[in-house]
Amino acid sequence: MEMETTIISASGSPSPPWQSGTDSTGSAEVARLTGQSYAFATVNYTLIPSVTVEEQVHEVADSLGYLVRNAARLDFDLQQIIQMGHSSGAHDSVISLDGSNYNAVAEITDSPGKIADSTIRGLGTDPKRLQAMSTTHHARAPNAGIFLLLHVHRQGDIRQAVELSAALEAAGTDVALHVFEGEGFEGDMQMLLRLGDPTYPATLVMDNWLKVHVPVTIASA
Prior knowledge:
InterPro entries: AB_hydrolase_fold, BD-FAE-like_dom. The structure is a single chain. The chain is 41% helix and 20% strand. It is built from nine helices and six strands. The protein has helices spanning 27-35, 53-69, 71-74, 104-110, 114-123, 127-132, 157-170, 184-194, 201-213, and strands at 4-10, 39-43, 76-86, 95-97, 146-153, 174-183. α1 links the parallel β1 and β2.
């Protein structure tokens, strides 16, 4: 029996991060991936202030661990698991859909107003904690071998994505960064809802990246 490559998605919310949103994922994205014979799972996490952001990360990790432990029963390939996330759910994902807070200190200084206030509510102002919760500061090896960063034009986030890409490449990690039309909240939601639509440019980029790095193999009869 052929086991399937599994894509695990953790959704987030562009504003306020970690505090709102559900495990909802764009239906076009799910249909596109399952139509290409990828298995797809979506996970949720408890919102702050009921838990801390660190606890949210552990909840996602626990969900991933559950799927790994049950890979044989669920008929997917233990060696072919890709973690995808949107917005704040992309904080620790291999496929990042308009992710944020790659550098939490920069997020506060680059995006004054509501975004900075939301980051402070979630992570506080302690420099050590902000650094500990910044993806860029964890880019050193060993790491996942490949990353795909898909972004729209959100204030400060492109610079952070470039910095993360440079840090990953310096650690010997293969990373691809692509930026698409769309700005702010509207652009972020467009990526969530339109990814999977064949007319949306990011869909083709994702398709090609998956074909190169985690191609689906069909067992012969």
